[in-house]
Amino acid sequence: MIEIAVSPSPVPSVIFALVALLGISVVVLLILRYFLPLRTTPAYLLVPIFFALWLPASMVLLVPIDLASSAMTDDTDARGIWLAPRALTVSWRITYWLTFALTWYAPWPVAPLFLCSFCMPLCQSSNCP
């Protein structure tokens, strides 16, 4: 009998990863809802705080998937949850650049207010927000 070589599909792994990221998003929203009033908190505060909690949790999920995807085994069923190399590259790039942007660019709108909180008489005479 002729056996047809079938390349394994990462569809179940993709579905698991998406469900896990959705679950992480729901948990982060529940945490934010517990500590912040979501309706009255401005979006410029809520979005960076959401990503500050969501990104590390998604990295915790992405590291084992990356390790399983790069495992050198002939049996693809033994690898567990894995993603295609292109999907992993895109996931890591999105995670890296979002983390970079939150680290370097998100504090800049808040920095003048932070500085003015220490020198109120000086800031009242200047154009401090």
Overview in brief:
Helix content is 65%, strand content 0%. With 129 residues, the chain is an all-alpha fold. The relative contact order is 0.10.
- Number of helical elements: 5
How large, in whole angstroms, is the Cα Rg?
A: 22 Å
- Derived from helix and strand composition plus strand pairing, the structural class reads mainly alpha
Q: State the order of secondary-structure elements, H for helix, E for strand.
A: HHHHH
Helix content: 55-70%
Count all strands and give the number.
0
- Tell me the count of domains: 1
Described by strand count, sense and barrel closure, the largest sheet is:
none
Determine the mean pLDDT: 80
**Approximate shape:** elongated
Low-confidence stretches: none
Beta content comes to under 5%
Distance between the termini: 78 Å
